Amino acid sequence: MKIMIIGCGRLGAELAKFLSQSNRTITVLDNEPSAFERLGPSFKGDTIFGDGLDRDVLIKGGIERTDALAALTASDDINVVVARLASQIFKVPRVVARVHDPHKAEIYRRLGVLTVSPVTLGTQRLAELLTFSQLNVVHSLGSGEVGIVELDAPQILIGKTVNDLTLPGEIRVIAITRGGKTHIPTLGTIFHKGDMIHIAVSSTSTDRLKTFLGLT
Question: Structural domains in the chain?
Answer without folding.
Answer: 2-116 (3.40.50.720), 122-213 (3.30.70.1450)
